């Protein structure tokens, strides 16, 4: 399917920020991709100058939160080529989210083509400083103008690009997590596995509470027993116990992270034993106290691999590995980021060349 392209004029083009001032998700490139769905079919795919949307106050998405999104990154390699990380995985998850939220799916090839065409056009926005990337945000919103709870009959699928620095201001340094003990993120049978805005809105109260105590991330427990570890705010979680890697098994409430899946494969290839199973927060704390849990880290697109140096749970603070980056965390980080930035060979065929 051909994508119509309308180029931004010189006046519409923005000033590109220097890599050194980039934060996460604050600046956006000159163009966006958009495609509307109406009468049970998708219309013409278009790349147009970046612009605000004008939406009626009664638009469905504002009232009932029928919305999904993805988070991906483009990496500039040493030879200046630009690559995506496993984009078809995001296309598949986008469509799974769409089905869960009663929204139309998008052709996977078009999803990837839209991203690659958009990046080709705005390629100068892909940073080339170490660790910096072009973040990609495919989104779909319900655009029918009507009140009343029902699936919308109109949708807008759009993609925006944002040059980004580190997700955490601290960069690749141990961060701290706050275990939410009174609120939950997702429930069995709910929407936890879908990447939909409401899941994130539900986390803000705890996130604020964590922030007030000096913790940048929340670690979520399961909704039924309130003791099995699920995931962090925007990342899956892994720990090293007696030299082996553990991560919570997917239970329908946890987002199926693409980094999680990749790190599991990577770790196994590097010779580590990886277990996907339920992990009780109380057992984890006992293992931190007796020293058998030596590392905890989070994995996700936005923050790659992030070591955890401290856990707060029920008014108590537990240090992880003396707040130092663990050996296995560092090893996995070096391998994953090395592949993503084209510094080491991609033996998994994960990278998808944009140009
Ligand atoms: C709630 C949540 N869990 C986990 C992840 C990690 O998923 P991925 O590795 O696909 O970015 C994300 C980020 O998308 C997320 O928002």
Please tell me about this protein's structure.
There is one protein chain. Strands 1, 2, 3, 4, 5, 6, 7, 8, 9 and 19 form a 10-stranded mixed sheet that branches. Strands 10, 11, 12, 13, 14, 15, 16, 17 and 18 form a 9-stranded mixed sheet that branches. The longest helix is centred in the first third of the chain and has 14 residues, at 87-100. It is built from 8 helices and 19 strands. The two termini are 19 Å apart. The chain has 2 domains: 4-164, D-amino Acid Aminotransferase, Chain A, domain 1 (2-Layer Sandwich), CATH 3.30.470; 175-340, D-amino Acid Aminotransferase, subunit A, domain 2 (D-amino Acid Aminotransferase, Chain A, domain 2), CATH 3.20.10.10. The protein has 355 residues and is an alpha+beta fold. Helix 2 packs across helix 3 (108-121). Pyridoxal-5'-phosphate binds at residues 71, 231, 234-236, 255, 257-260, 300-301.
State the separation between the terminal residues, measured CA to CA.
19 Å
Query: Number of folding domains?
Result: 2
Helix content: 10-25%
CATH superfamily of the largest domain: D-amino Acid Aminotransferase, subunit A, domain 2
CATH topology of the largest domain: D-amino Acid Aminotransferase, Chain A, domain 2
Task: Quickly give the structural class.
Answer: alpha+beta
Bound heterogens, unique: pyridoxal-5'-phosphate
Give, in order, the helices and strands.
Answer: EEEEHEEEHHEEEHHEEEEHEHEEEHE
What count of helical segments does DSSP give?
A: 8
Give the overall silhouette. Answer: globular
